[in-house]
Amino acid sequence: MGALKSVFRLLGAPFRPIGSLMGRFLNTPFRQATAVFSLAYVLIEHGIPRIPPLFGLPSAPVPNTVVLEYLVIALVGILLWVSDNEERWSEFKQPIHDVLVRPDRRIWRGALFVIVPALVATQTYLSARPDVSAPPSFRAIHPAPPSAITFQGEQMVLDGLENPLRSTGLLEEHYEEGKRVYYQNCLACHGDGLQGRGHYAQIFNPEPINFQDGGTIAMLTESFVFWRIAKGGPGLPNEGNPWNSAMPVWENFLTADEIWSVIIFLYEQTGRDPRTWELEEEEH
Amino acid sequence: MLKRSRGRWSWLQASLPVAIVAAIGLIAIAIEPLAAQGYTPREYGDFPIIGSRAAIWIAAQLHLFFAAFVLGVPMFAVVAEAIGIFSSDDRYDKLAKEFTRLLLVSYSATAMWGAVLVFGLITLYPGLWGYLSEIFAPSMWVYVGIFFFESFTLYLYYYGWDRWKKGRAKWGHWGLGILLNLWGTAVMLIANSWLTYMMSPPAEVTPDTAPGMVQFWSAFANATWMPINIHRFIANIVFGGAIVGAYAAFRFLSAKTDEERAHYDWMGYIGNFIAMSALIVLPFAGYWLGREIYEFNQQMGTTMMGGFMSWLWVVQAFLIGVLFLAGNYYLWIGMGRIPGAERFMPYTKWMLLVLLIGAAVWATPRNMIANRAEITAMGGQFHPFLGVLGVMSAKNTAVNFMILTTFLSFLLYRRANKKAVVSWEKRGTTIQGALFVIAAAVVLFYGVYGYFVPSIVRIGFSVYQVLAVITAIILIVVIDMLMMRGAKSRGEIRWGEMPERSQYALFILAVTFTWLMGLMGFARSGIRQHWHVFEVLRDTSVDAATPALGYASIVISVCVLIFLSMVAFIFWVGGLAEKPVISGVGGGATGSAPAARDQEI
Amino acid sequence: MTNIKILGVMIGTISIYTWIANAIPQIESVVPEELSFSSDVSEAELVAAGGELYNGGAGCTTCHGLETRAPNLLTGYNGEGTIGTRCGTRVPGQDCKAYLHESMMNPMAYVVEGGFDPMVFQARVFSGAQIWALVAFLQDQGGVVTVTGADVAAAAEADAAAPAGGPAVASTDPLEIMRGNLCLACHMLNGEGAELAPPFDGMGSRIEADRIRRGIIDPGAEIAEGFDHLAGSMPLTIPDLLTARQLELLVDFLAGQGG
C-alpha cells in the first residue's frame, strides 16, 4: 500500500504545480462542479470521437441527441454529489445564494438577467430557424419478422426455419453461387467489401446495411435475413416508422436457392455466424 | 397498549372485500345460464369518452398496484415480526403491526378494484370473458374461495396481534402471518395463469379450438406462467418496500417530535433496504421471463425487443438509472447520521461515477437519433464506439456493475459505526475486496468476450455474470456477519437527523417503481398486439391496435396518480388510527435509543 | 407546505417520465387490415382504400414519391401532369383503367429500358380487390375513376380460393386440374412448372397412390424427404377445391407417372 502511494507521488510530481494552481481555483464545491461539468462536455464532445482511431477506425462525432443525454446524466450526477453531504450542499448553494441576494453582487445579478434570457432566446431561434437538413430519422434496428411469409406465392414458415443449403450439397458450391448472385445483384449498393459502401450507397437514407458490422447479420437468424432479402423495403412492417429503404423485393428476381446461397456467401465472407434457433445447433 | 375500540366502520371495511367477492362470484355464475337460454352476449361493450381499452387498462393496472402492495407488505410484515421475535426488539414488532394496519385498508381497495376490473370485463369484453371463464372456471371458483380464507387470516393476524403477544402464542401468531402469505401467493399464481395464458397459450390451442376443449392444466401452467410468478413475487417485495419507504418519508416529514422522526427515519431505511435488495435480483427474473417469451415465439420476442417496443427499453433504462441513483443517494446522505461513516465518505464519489457510467451505457441507444449530416460523419447508422455500447453485452455488464456498486454502498453503510473485534479483521476485509474485484473481473471478461461469440452463446454469458455477482454478494455478506460479531460501536446512529432531501429520494423511488410497473405491464400486455389470446383469439374491437408509448405513458401516469392519491388517503387513515399509540406510549419503547443491532436486518 | 412539496416532487417525477415517453418516436402497432369489398362498393370507398394502401402498407411512395427512383405519380412527372391525366395516353389503344391495371399486374411490360426494375409484381403481394382500389386511387389523381364494384367483385371471385365456391375448375383433364389449382407453381411436370416442391415427374415410382392422396388431402402429415424446409407451404385449401372425381383422377394420373 505504502509502495503504491509513493509510486503515485513520483508519477504525480510534474503535475504538482498545475495541481496546486487548480487546487487554488477549485476550492469550492460550486467551482468544482462547474469544472467537472465542463470536463464532461469536453470528454463527450471531443474525447469519444478520438476513441475509434485508437482501433484503426475513422473518427466519428457523437450525435447531438446522445451528447445531450450524457450531459443530463453528468448533471444529475454532479447534483447528487454536491448534495449527498450536508456541509458540501450548503457550501455549494452559498455562491448561488450570494449572487441572488448579496448587495455587492448586483452586477452579477444584472448580468444573469441578461445572459439567461439571451441563451433561451438563442436556443429558441436555433430550433425554430428553417433548416435544410433532413429531420433525424428513427428506425427500429431489427423489425419484428412475421412468423410466416408468402414467398413467390407460396407460404413459408419462418419460425425455426434453417438454411436448407447447409444440409445439402457442398458448401463451397453454394458459396460460389452466392458470390455470383451477390456480385450480380447486391454489389451496387452493399459494395465490394460488404460494408454497405457500394457505388449507389451515398444516395440512400437509410444507408445500405454493413454486413461486416457485428450488430447486423451476426445477430440474426438466416430465416430473418431471408425474409429481408425476399421482401425488401416494401415488405417492412409499418411499426418501424418511415420506412424508406430502397431494398428491392428480391423474390421477384431470385429463386429461393439463390437467396439461400447469397446468405451463405454473406456469412462466409464476413466470417460471422448466424444466430441459431437452438444452442445445440451451434455445437456441430 | 392499544385498547381502543376501532368502531363500527372498521367492521364495515373488513367485510367489504368479502361482500364484493361474493357479488362477483354470483354474477359470474349467473352469466352462463343466460347464454344457455339462447341469449348471445355481444362481443364488446363501449365505455364513454376514454373508450373500453383505457377503462379496462386503468382498472387492471390499479387492481395490480394494490394487489402488489397487499402481497408485498405481508412478506415484509412477517419478516419484521420474525426479527422482532428473535432480537426481542419491540420496534420491529410495532413496525410489522403498523404495516398490517395499512394492509387492512389496502385490502379493501384491492378487492374494489378487482370488482371494477371484473365488471369491466363482463360489460366491455363479454366475448373474451366468456372465453376465459369457459377454460378457467374451476380455478376461478378456487380463487374466490381462497379469497375468503385470506381475508379471515388477515383479520385474525391483525386483530389477534395484542392477544397473542407472548411465548408460544406469539409463534402461532407468526404462523398466521406465514399462512397469510401462502394464501396471497396462491391467489397470485391463479390470477397469473389467466393472463399468461393470454400471452402464451399452449401450442395445441389454435383459433379453431373451442374453449371447452382446451386442457385445463396445459392452459394453467403455460410457458410464461412460472417466469411471471417469480418475477411478480420479487417485484411485489420491491414494491412493498418502496411504498413503505414512501409512507415513512411522509410521516417523517410531518412528524412533530424527535421520537417520531427517529422512528420513521428508521422505517424509511428498512423500506429502502428491502426494496433495493429485492431489486438486485429482479433483473435476473426479468431476464428469464424474456428468454421464455423468445422461446415461446420468436416474433413476440422481436416485437418486444426490436420491434415497435424497442424504444420502451430506453425509457426503462432511464427509470432503472433513477432507481439505482436515488437508492444509493439515500444511503450516502444517511451516512451523515452515522458516527464513523466519515471514513467512507471520500469513496462515494467514485461509486457515483461507476453508477453514472453504468447509467450512461444503459441509456446509449444502439441506433442513435441522428440527422443526415451526423450519420454521414459517423460513417453509418451505428457509431463505431458508442454503437458497441448499444448491445446486450455492454448493458448486462453495466447493470451488474451497478448492482455491485449498490451492494458496496450497503456494506459501507452497515459497517460505518462498527469496529470489528475479531483478530482477522484486516484479512477478512482484504478477502472481501478480492471477491469484489473477482466478481467485477468476471463480469467485465464475459462482457467483452461476448462480442466475439455468436448471439446464442452470448445469451448464456449473462448467466455467468449473474452467478459471479450473486456468489460474491453472498460470500461477502457471510464474511461480514462473522467479522462483525460482537463488534464495538463507534457511536450510535442518530436516527432522525436526516436532511429532508433524503426523504424526497424515497418518494422518487416509490413513484418510479410504481411508474415502472405500469410501463412493464404495458410491455407485457402490448406484445400480444392485436390478439386477446396470442394467435388464438383475435381482438376485433375498435381498440385492437396497440397504442404508441406516448399514449401509454399518459394512461400509466393517470393510473399512478390515482393509485398514489388513494394510497395517500390510506396513509392518512393509518395516521388517524395510529395517533393513540405514539402519544399513549409516549417516550416508551418507540423512543428508546437504538443499538448497533438495529442494522442486523 | 411539506405536503405541497411532496405533491410537487411526485407530479414532477411523473411528468418527466410522461414527457420522455412522448418525446421519443411514437410508433403504434396497427392491426393488419384486410380489404373486402362487395360489388356495391362506392367509388369514394375504393379511392380512400387505395390511397391508404398507396401511402401506407403498399410501400409505393418508397419509389414513386421521389423523382429519382420512379415517376412521381401524384404531383406530376416531367411536366406531363399527374397520373390520372396521362394514364389514358400512355399506350395506344389501351384506356387508363386497363393500362394501370396491367402495369401493376405485369410491371415489366412497360419498363422498356430493359435495365433493373425493382417494381414489385403487385399481383403477388395484393389481392385483386386491393389492386383495383389502387387503380381507382391513381385514376382519381386528376382523372376520372372508372373502376366499378363489378371489377372488384370479379377480381375478388377470381383470386378467392373461395372454398364456398366449389371446385376451382370444372375440367376432368388432369393437366387442366393441375393448372387450374396452381399445382404447377411448385411441382414440375414434363418441363412445366417449378422446381420448388417434389416433382410430379416420376412420382408414381417413388410413392404409392394412397400416399399421394394423403399428400393432397393433408399435405402437412408427411413431408417428402429433403423437403422439410417447405413443410406447411402447400395450401390446405386444395381438398376444398377439388371434386371427388377430380381428386381420384389426379391420384391415378400421378401414380401413373413412372420413372
If you had to describe this structure to a student in words, what would you say it looks like?
The complex is a heterotrimer of chains A (284), B (601) and C (259). Chain A has 284 residues and is an all-alpha fold. Chain A has two domains: 21-122, no CATH class; 148-283, Cytochrome Bc1 Complex, Chain D, domain 2, CATH 1.10.760. Chain A is built from eleven helices and two strands, in the order αααααααββαααα. Chain A has a two-stranded antiparallel sheet. In chain A, β1 (148-151) and β2 form a beta hairpin. Chain A is elongated. The relative contact order of chain A is 0.08. Chain B is built from 18 helices and four strands. Chain B has a two-stranded antiparallel sheet. Residues 1-8 and 580-601 of chain B have low confidence and may be disordered. Chain C is mainly alpha-helical. Chain C folds into two domains: 43-160; 174-255, Cytochrome Bc1 Complex, Chain D, domain 2 (Orthogonal Bundle). Helices cover 45% and strands 2% of the residues of chain C. Chain C contains 13 helices and two strands; from the N terminus they run αααααααααββαααα. Chain C has helices at 2-23, 43-55, 61-64, 83-86, 96-105, 122-125, 128-139, 149-159, 174-180, 203-206, 209-217, 238-241, 244-255; strands spanning 188-189, 192-193. A two-stranded antiparallel sheet of chain C has the order 1-2. In chain C, a hairpin with a 2-residue loop joins β1 and β2. In chain C, α5 crosses α7, α7 packs antiparallel against α8 (149-159) and α11 packs across α13. Chains in contact: A-B, A-C, B-C. Chains A and B meet through α5 and α11 of A and α9, α10, α11, α12 and α16 of B.
